[in-house]
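Researcher: Checking consistency across runs. Here is LSM domain superfamily again:
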Amino acid sequence: MEQAAQRSSTIVASTSEGSNLDPISRVRKLLFRQMLVGIKDGRFFLGNFHCIDKQGNIILQDTVEYRSIRRSSPSPTEQRCLGMILIPSSCRTSCHVDCSIEEQLSLIQLKE
């Protein structure tokens, strides 16, 4: 799981000027990319981005859940396969996408 987090790039809400692509085109670039989403209770979900709705809820497919077994610092993680899941925007704390450096620069312009 940590390896996936290290090789992925963060999508950050940016206050700077957006790129020349409309929001729909920018989201289409994310389709079927591997995405790592963290939620408030400390779990992480790694799956393929399927869609997002107007409220910001994300649907991932072929998803694996990672969670800490203990609350200690170097705690072992447990994983389980879930399939397709919906992650509410109210629970989401982080969102990372696998992509190249060039794509990172274009995706960083995504706004919430």
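Researcher: Does this match what you'd expect to see?
Model: One thing to look at in this run: DSSP finds three helices and six strands in the chain.
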